[in-house]
Amino acid sequence: MTIVIIGPPAAGKTRIGRRVAKLLDMTFTDTDKQIAAANGPIPAIFESLGEPAFRALERAEVVTALAGGGIVSFGGGAVLNEATQRDLDGCLVVLFTASVEAVQKRLGNSRRPLVPDIESWQRLVDARHELYESLADFTIDTSHRKADDIADDVATWITEQFDAQQFEKQQFEKQQFDAERPGPKPGQAQGRVS
Ligand SMILES: Nc1ncnc2c1ncn2[C@@H]1O[C@H](COP(=O)(O)OP(=O)(O)O)[C@@H](O)[C@H]1O
Ligand SMILES: O=C(O)C1=C[C@@H](OP(=O)(O)O)[C@@H](O)[C@H](O)C1
Ligand SMILES: [Mg+2]
């Protein structure tokens, strides 16, 4: 099962996602890091090729990352792609949110092409929050707690989902086994016929 972390820029997807993967001993892929490794820094891609070209590169990295499994952190806009939205049906999706106050402190000197200031971050969140929420299986607010504590909570939730899946699988296999076994079925009367 692939776990995908979505949410707005500076919500902590990259930093906390990496930590979650370490806690669970799973692989970690950040789609932005993959794009940058192959094509150079993201601001330069936006500048030289434009956003549509960046989104095409991003879609290709999403497909590769989802096929690889483990913990996958998306860039904030990756879920705008409709094929990606459909792909998330088969994944566990964790949404990271953050307050405008928390993000204001985090943005600092970091360069994000679509987020030159906090007002543009707020506009982006206003436009996307319904989409983010519609895709999420679990949502966590990263505004007020340490990254490591948030990672612990996310790892616990993922472990619970795995355990629940395992239990369902075992129940299903037991039902199959009972259905195929000759003789009285479980719950069926076993009285002697004279
Ligand atoms: N819970 C947190 N508390 C404080 N700072 C955080 C927290 N999570 C992330 N950060 C910081 O916020 C910035 C953005 O985090 P990042 O993981 O790059 O976010 P995203 O991938 O969602 O854009 C980084 O400087 C990161 O260290
Ligand atoms: O929200 C977006 O559209 C973007 C978010 C960025 O990633 P983070 O969400 O990791 O900052 C990066 O992919 C690019 O600048 C576009
Ligand atoms: Mg990131």
From TrEMBL:
Keyword Amino-acid biosynthesis: yes
Pfam family membership, one: SKI
Metabolic or biological pathway, per its Swiss-Prot or TrEMBL entry: Metabolic intermediate biosynthesis; chorismate biosynthesis; chorismate from D-erythrose 4-phosphate and phosphoenolpyruvate: step 5/7
Reaction(s) catalysed (UniProt annotation): shikimate + ATP = 3-phosphoshikimate + ADP + H(+)
Transmembrane segments: none
Region (Disordered), start-end ranges: 169-194
Alphabetic keyword roster: Amino-acid biosynthesis, Aromatic amino acid biosynthesis, ATP-binding, Cytoplasm, Kinase, Magnesium, Metal-binding, Nucleotide-binding, Transferase
CDD domains: SK (cd00464)
EC number: 2.7.1.71
Subcellular location: Cytoplasm
Predominant subcellular localization, coarse grouping: cytoplasm
Annotated binding of Mg(2+), by residue: T14
Residues binding ATP, per UniProt: A10, A11, G12, K13, T14, R15, R112, R145
Top-level lineage group: Bacteria
Alphabetized SUPFAM superfamilies for the sequence: P-loop containing nucleoside triphosphate hydrolases
Binding-site residues for substrate, renumbered to this chain: D32, R55, G76, R128
Biological function: Catalyzes the specific phosphorylation of the 3-hydroxyl group of shikimic acid using ATP as a cosubstrate.
Family matches, as HAMAP family: Shikimate_kinase
Self-association state and partner proteins as the record states: Monomer.
Identification of the protein by name: Shikimate kinase
Lineage: Bacteria, Bacillati, Actinomycetota, Actinomycetes, Micrococcales
